[in-house]
Amino acid sequence: MRTILCYGDSNTHGQIPGGTPLDRYTLLQRWPGVLARELGKGWHIIEEGLSGRTTVHDDPIEGALKNGRTYLRPCLMSHAPLDLVIIMLGTNDLKARFSQPASEVAMGIGCLIHDIKELSPGPDGTVPEIMVVSPPPMLDDIKEWENIFKAAQQKSHELALQFEIMSDSLEVHFFDAGSVSTCDPLDGFHINAQAHENLGVALAREVEAIGWK
After folding, report:
1. Of 10, 86, 115, 132, which one is least surrounded by beta carbons within 10 A?
2. Which ranges carry the SGNH hydrolase-type esterase domain (predicted)?
């Protein structure tokens, strides 16, 4: 059986657009659940999503626990051996409090990739396959979140290119979630059930195409 770790933020956690972090789509609706359904027997999918998670930043308001880099290493060790790690982060790095351009958000993704390679939590101590997924771009209207994500909308459209450049340079897989899904108008930066379905199906095809030995 092959094991996949899905490491992300609220759009991996399955937060319902316009709701709170406690308002989630069901296990089978969330994209990791869709991925599990599509891949079928022989695959174990681990869902590890946290609302507000960043790539490498302690959040000065929500706390250090939101730092995706801090938690990644123990998470990898807890679930090893892993055949594939899928990372879908970046949206929360665009909050005004971090003042990050898209290129520096991509550097944060690069740090996570380096950490995975250094730890080598794959079978027999190997480096697992790694896939970076850029989140769908935010909508122009993000409702009451406008001040928190001030000027983030344009940056969110730049993430896919910057993530792809980083992925190519570090020789890992890349997928643009915006190619198959969009954010929901209810809040402008979370994906709805149909987008989870589309993303899970598309990622299953990407996983199958890796060319497993």
Report:
1. 115
2. 6-197
Q: Residue 28 is encoded by which pair of tokens?
A: 């089978």
**Chain CA centroid to CA 213, Å:** 25
Architecture of the domain defined by 2-208: 3-Layer(aba) Sandwich (3.40)
Residue 27 corresponds to which tokens in the numbers above? Answer: 């296990």
Span 160-187, pLDDT tens digits: 999 999 999 999 999 999 999 999 999 9
* The model's pTM: 0.97
18: left (phi over 0), alpha (psi -120 to 50) or beta: left
pLDDT at 211 (0 to 100): 87
Q: How many helices (H) and strands (E) does the chain have?
A: 6, 5
- Exposed e or buried b for every residue in 48-81, given b needs 16+ CB within 10 A? bbbbbbbbbbebeeeeeebbbbebbeebbeebbe
Residue 161 contacts residue 212 (beta carbons within 8 Å): no
Distance CA 191, CA 189 (A): 7
